[in-house]
Design a protein that fits this description.
By secondary structure, the chain is α/β, with parallel strands linked by helices. Helix content is 39%, strand content 20%. Helix 2 links the parallel strand 1 and strand 2. Helix 6 packs antiparallel against helix 7.
Length: 239
């Protein structure tokens, strides 16, 4: 249920790209794809998927997961900034950049590298942490000073012990994509309620999970609720 909104967007862009190219199988790169939570299901759909990740353990887990599902996913060790060195220009139809821009040293450089990989008409899927949600979550645990700090800090951090180097508002994500040559699509909120609802209200209750997914999908584009989501998702298109 935590990724339902992202998958809705991905299915849409995959259908559009398949129709535009006439190819049923697309070339997809998952930057920072870790253990293959998105990569393996995409490979199961018939696409050619490459995961670039800096962690050998994650790539090993990716290989095991792909083998269990009977699909092939290529794993390459490297950072988002290395994409241009590891892969050929104009070789991808879609690049996933999920939970990456918060941690890379140079977000503009990373997205510029992504743009170099994409064929004309391709897209990047960006998923990033939202500072407003961080503030809400700190407040719900009684850390009110940290909640205020997350709102005031330009990088959306709640303090020196915050493990996330930066977070992005909807405006900041759009600005970042525009600065690197993409046309930004609509912003969607991801995990508006999923991180706030106690698991006891979902687990074991018939139909509760499906109802929560439907609620998440409705809230994803709500003009107020979207902006309090744990993460924000946007597609950037290369002209």
């Amino acid at each position: 249920m935590r990724t339902a909104v992202v998958w809705d967007a991905l299915r849409g862009v995959l259908a559009e790209r398949t129709a535009a190219t006439g190819r049923d199988g697309l070339d997809i790169v998952d930057a920072g794809g870790g253990t293959g939570g998105f990569a393996v299901p995409l490979a199961e759909l018939g696409h050619t998927v490459t995961v670039v990740d800096p962690t050998p353990d994650s790539l090993a887990a990716l290989e095991r997961r792909a083998k269990e599902k009977g699909v092939s996913v290529r794993g390459l060790q490297g950072d988002a900034a290395d994409l241009g060195d590891l892969l050929s220009r104009d070789s991808a139809d879609l690049v996933l950049c999920h939970s990456v821009l918060e941690y890379v040293d140079d977000p503009i450089g990373a997205l510029t590298a992504v743009a170099g990989l994409l064929r004309r008409g391709g897209a990047v899927s960006v998923l990033a942490a939202n500072p407003v949600a961080s503030s809400i979550h700190r407040a719900l645990t009684g850390r009110f000073d940290e909640a205020r700090a997350a709102l005031d800090d330009p990088l959306g951090r709640w303090g020196d012990r915050d493990p996330t180097p930066r977070r992005y508002s909807a405006a900041a994500l759009t600005e970042l994509l525009t600065a690197t040559g993409f046309t930004a699509g609509a912003i969607h909120g991801v995990r508006v309620f999923a991180d706030l609802v106690p698991s006891r209200l979902v687990d074991g209750e018939p139909g509760a999970a499906e109802a929560l997914i439907a609620l998440e999908q409705a809230a994803a584009t709500h003009p107020v609720l979207r902006d309090i989501a744990t993460q924000l998702h946007v597609l950037g298109h290369r002209g």
